[in-house]
Specification:
Oligomer: single chain
Number of domains: 2
Mean pLDDT: 96
Structural class: alpha/beta
Strand order of the largest sheet: 3-2-1-4-5-6-7-8
Shape: globular
Order of helices and strands: EHEHEHEHEHHEHHEEEHHEH
CATH architecture of the largest domain: 3-Layer(aba) Sandwich
Bound molecules: 1,4-dihydronicotinamide adenine dinucleotide
Largest sheet: 8 strands, mixed
CATH superfamily of the largest domain: NAD(P)-binding Rossmann-like Domain
CATH topology of the largest domain: Rossmann fold
Radius of gyration: 21 Å
CATH class of the largest domain: Alpha Beta
Strand content: 15-25%
Number of strands: 10
Length: 316
Amino acid sequence: MTAIDFTHRVAIVTGAGGGLGRTFAMALAARGASVVVNDLGGRFDGQGSSPGMADGVAEEIRAAGGTAVANYDSVATRAGGEGIVQTALDKFGRVDIVINNAGHLRNARFEDIDDDTLDSIIDVHLKGAIYVTQPAYKVMKRQGYGRVVFMSSAAAAFGNPQQAAYAAAKAGLLGIMNVLALEGSAHGIQCNALLPVATSRMEAAMDPAQLAAFTAQYAALGEKLGSSYLPEFVTPLVVYLASEACSSTQAIYSAALGRYARAFIGVSEGWAGPRDNPVSAEVLAEHFRQIRDIGQYSVPASLSDEFAIIERTLGH
Ligand code: NAI
């Protein structure tokens, strides 16, 4: 087993002042990375700011013998994203790793989502990841090396009530990841997305009934649960995806309760109708079972790859 080592690597972890981000920053630093510990230092719902959270984790890393600098910029503005990357360049001279982790949570039923919630969620999760990754990507491209991890969510990949705005933003990250992985592949840049599960302060934004249902599901695991709900159980996957050893790009992974798995968007074998005239909706309905059947499926690696798969199906 080759040890994963980040000596001479520079990592940016956004939202690293607590929760999952803190454990990512600590783990990367413990393995030799110089880390920019970014955190706006606000509340779980995005209100307020303070330098204390980023300072605390940067200090924790230094006390453990690691190298870290705190940064307090908000990822949710272009200037903030550039400031975070500039901090890495000023202090450490390069950027090898970006972990897009910063975010806040405001849940609401779909019909109640107002513009303030929509804007703040899209700004921090979706635009924030772009604002940080774009300047970092330019540096990575010059270097010919980079690793980018996007913290998405099972709420986006699979759905979760009361999280339409959040899920839309997190699903956007899957789209960015797919495209950036393709654009970055010629430059040694690999991108992946994660669907993490860990207890965190974000639970404060959740509907009490939904939180109680989750808690009951956890409790039903009994002794099998152990302490697997802690952020530290997500961290090994982030460390691997951020490493030179990582062989994956353009993929989505789930890290939940000590179970690590790949999630993917696939296309069923489907049903091909005649090509001289479009079929009626009624004929389509007759074949709907076959269209939906996922007994056989493909996982396209790009839009044009899906086209090649369609061509194969039509050739049958
Ligand atoms: P958290 O609230 O502890 O961590 C988020 C951090 O981002 C906080 O420290 C916060 O101050 C920081 N932040 C918020 N807005 C910022 C901004 N504009 N600029 C810079 N920093 C900012 O919550 P947690 O659970 O650790 O979440 C980390 C990431 O993982 C988030 O993106 C979250 O959406 C995602 N996630 C978490 C899950 C979980 O089960 N905990 C499930 C799915 C996704």
